[in-house]
Amino acid sequence: MNPKRYLPILQWLPGYGREPLTRDLLAAVIVTIMLIPQSLAYAMLAGLPPETGLYASIVPLVVYALFGTSRTLAVGPVAVVSLMTAAAVGQIAPQGSPEYLGAALVLALMSGLMLTVMGVARLGFLANFLSHPVISGFITASGLIIAASQLKHVLGVEASGHHLVALLASLAGSLAEVNAPTLAIGLGVLAFLLIARRWLTPTLRRLGVPARPAEMLTKAAPILAVAVTTLATWGMGLDANGVAVVGSVPAGLPPLTLPGFDSGLWRQLFVAALLISIVGFVESVSVGQTLAAKRRQRIDPNQELIGLGTSNIAASFTGGMPVTGGFARSVVNFDAGAETPAAGAFTALGIGLAALLLTPLIAYLPIATLAATIIVAVLSLVDLPAIKRTWDYSRSDAAAMLATILVTMGHGVESGITVGVGLSLALHLYRTSRPHSAVVGRVPGTEHFRNVQRHEVETDEHLSILRVDEGLYFANARYLEDTVMELAARQPGLAHIVLACQAVNVIDASALESLEAINARLKDADVTLHLAEVKGPVMDRLHNTALCRELTGQVFLSTFDAWRALHDERDATQLPSASTSRSTARQAAP
Amino acid sequence: MNPKRYLPILQWLPGYGREPLTRDLLAAVIVTIMLIPQSLAYAMLAGLPPETGLYASIVPLVVYALFGTSRTLAVGPVAVVSLMTAAAVGQIAPQGSPEYLGAALVLALMSGLMLTVMGVARLGFLANFLSHPVISGFITASGLIIAASQLKHVLGVEASGHHLVALLASLAGSLAEVNAPTLAIGLGVLAFLLIARRWLTPTLRRLGVPARPAEMLTKAAPILAVAVTTLATWGMGLDANGVAVVGSVPAGLPPLTLPGFDSGLWRQLFVAALLISIVGFVESVSVGQTLAAKRRQRIDPNQELIGLGTSNIAASFTGGMPVTGGFARSVVNFDAGAETPAAGAFTALGIGLAALLLTPLIAYLPIATLAATIIVAVLSLVDLPAIKRTWDYSRSDAAAMLATILVTMGHGVESGITVGVGLSLALHLYRTSRPHSAVVGRVPGTEHFRNVQRHEVETDEHLSILRVDEGLYFANARYLEDTVMELAARQPGLAHIVLACQAVNVIDASALESLEAINARLKDADVTLHLAEVKGPVMDRLHNTALCRELTGQVFLSTFDAWRALHDERDATQLPSASTSRSTARQAAP
């Protein structure tokens, strides 16, 4: 066992010097400023006290710096995982109760254990169950749900519901109670953030600020909104006028917490924890790979699972919530020049200082400000043109995407992702269950064979050559049986069928049995089955099987060999026995 | 719409004459004799009154004759489906209660509707979810459970449990109460049937009986056992000595029944009905295809779904139970010379006569006799050598098979089949998630390219050609990203990567996005991405995508074209810009 593989910190720490230290420190400062409002906001989105978000951005970051393989990934609470946390934990206990907090810790622990086990068992491939259209649809739907769920804070009304339809209905019912100062703050921050996102960088550039600082300042716009609205609320006493504020947040470092071990609770949260783990991993690993590639670095997906898993375990023991690698903050970290995971550890220090010293200052922070921050952040996740793009490219992928979006919005996050995964699996099976195959004939005068329906080729009424363009496995084994037996039933004069296998990369046990059945059935019908162009590794496995022992025909190296042997044979002998049986068969099949 | 497709009876009835009539009648007589004890026995196995089995062998057979496409399939209660019925209905109500009977009717109706809908919607491909090893394992485990469940009747004791472990434990606890006359009958019938199966045909042949009648007589052995033990029980008054008998069975034609429409019950039975439908369909269609092929006939799997579906609907309205095409009885039907589905209709007549006239005679039929009949029938389903055979051929298929067997035996039929299907899907995804790919080089002096690890080929440190031997879809999209980016990270001098796509039959939306990500990441790393040998249909879909618009390199017709263009280009210009960026990249990636 190579310790460097399981402790990637050993790869970079020994060579760590002054230059990367400076760059990492600078990146950490910028990410800290960005992460403070985000942490508070995503904790609120998950229905947890604001300090939970800060706690989840301290120890987990240090742990990821030890075990993670991405140099620049920034770990912490993210929008989609926070929404999933709220949906899962909300079914266990009401928001604000100690059970709700406890369940969030258990969720983080379970998700951490699952990710770590998957990493150690090298099960990263399980994330492949989530196809791109399903993820994209899920994130779009989540973004819309999150944005809708924050509208109530911008309006200053009460509303609830874990899926879009319920939420909007609830909101519509309480529009009469809108709080004017809250709405002013909420819309003000929304407008400011949207304008900042679009025009701040170009304006600063025009004012002579260099490109990178201009972009960094734009990313720091939320902290400005936080500072201004907090001051305004405090100065004008808006909290007395119905503006909801964060209120008193305990100052101090993360507490030591012990997640509960109630087996009933664990069972109830199992599916949610699995889905959160996989969604979080997929999001994180995509970001990590994109950033690593820009510097020709590599991340190891299975070690990433361990990195994220241990971070979540750490979160569960330090009063946190489920975390993963976030897109926006990782890009900021990368752009700010972070060179090693030490930047993450320094960010943790920064957030730790904030938790110690700054919490009294945010008592007057309006919740509407955080809500507006969340809305602007998640609307960038919503990718409606992707639906059209996917539809144009592939109807079946678009169907999976649409189903994911509609079910997520209408029935909740867990159902949405489950239906999406189920449907994309079913559609994949459907697609490969009807593999492309073609009856081929000889291009006259050559050794080449082409589809008889597309080319002028030589054929032989006693011989049919079927080329199969797909690996043979359980999903298409039966289709192969159908195709071959239809060929035999359609062509009464047939004496030989050759399967040309140049594109067959695998024959699993189901396909093997189907081939055995085909062989036996063709034998009953007096048709001989031959194989041609079987690939080396496939042939190696076939050698000791009943198929090879009982094959009525031969295994030819090339299709042309098969053609020469079977076409000539008939010319020479006229196959008397086969002709007799063919006439019997013709009689029996009217 | 072609009525002949949906009413296959129109294909054969117009030409029906005296000769097929004679053959069909003879086959029907033989199948009727075989089916009477089987129907009683499988009804008992399903926990239903014996007459239910007879009812399920009357109207459903006539309906199948109208809608089914197999000429010789014999429909009725079968062992595995009866076991699944008992497991499903047993969770709703205790055996013997009216709710139990009602739930069995609902199960037949739901299964019938599901099959019919799947047939009309041409969803027969869904049966492909069941791989051969999973079916084989499931049937083996079911056979063992059924045999074990019948042991109590042979011993004359009480025992219960829907899976093997519980059953055997329960049996062991009641061994003290064995009833001697019951045991004598049970063991006697068991021995007689086993001996008959092995030696009756050869003995009869030696006595001068021709082959076919000898085989038919052997198949009729169970009815002989029924007759003899019934007479013995009646004559010796064994029922007074503790021998359980069938008891009074109402004489008469099937009653009209109306399955209940309680939505809660339907929801509870949904999964069971789906599994019963799929297992029954798979069993039936395999038998049908095997027999059809012997006469070069065809069956249409989607129309078969309609045939089986309508049969089950008929069963639910005529006091029956879930039915499907049985293996043993279909073979007997075929061997006895049945030529058209009319044989099935005549069999229904025969069973109808039996239900009207023979029921008083079976009051003294010992249950031990039926149990012994079942045990002998299902033990032929148990195929333990298949485990070894599958293991030798493919470890992953064997794993799915073993999991199915163990979970079915230890936890019940529904869990067993669900775990088997889930595991074979996961293993398939795992297998295709790591497609075979190879970096290839040029065979010197030719236009051919071969794996660099297996052949002496020309390579170029600035150019890497990767051949991918599998369609690209969501399960392997991420692996492709990993493989390509690892190639780029490993070879610092690299300027071009060519993907040779001659074996890529499909690129789904996930793989398309992965290729776009690969292209963008390689661009960041100053590596150009090219494609070669993209198949026509795949290229057609790629034309209007972002990949084609943003591809940093070109699409070459052949790998050799790519080699010539990229290999020569470097020789001519030394690519100054690429070399510069390469040295930067080397610096960044320590």
UniProtKB/TrEMBL annotation, chains A, B:
Which processes are annotated in GO (biological process)? transmembrane transport
CDD domains xrefs: STAS_SulP_like_sulfate_transporter
How does this chain sit within the bilayer?
Multi-pass membrane protein
Enumerate the subcellular locations listed in this protein's record, separating them with semicolons: Membrane
STAS domain segment(s): 453-573
Which key words are in the record? Membrane, Transmembrane, Transmembrane helix
Query: Pfam families, from UniProt?
Result: STAS, Sulfate_transp
Write out the GO cellular component annotations.
Answer: membrane
Where is the chain membrane-spanning? Answer: 25-45, 52-68, 74-93, 100-123, 129-148, 182-200, 221-249, 269-293, 305-328, 340-358, 365-387, 399-427
Say where the protein is mainly found.
membrane
Q: What NCBIfam families does the entry give? A: sulP
Q: What is this protein called?
A: Sodium-independent anion transporter
- List the lineage, top down: Bacteria, Pseudomonadati, Pseudomonadota, Gammaproteobacteria, Oceanospirillales
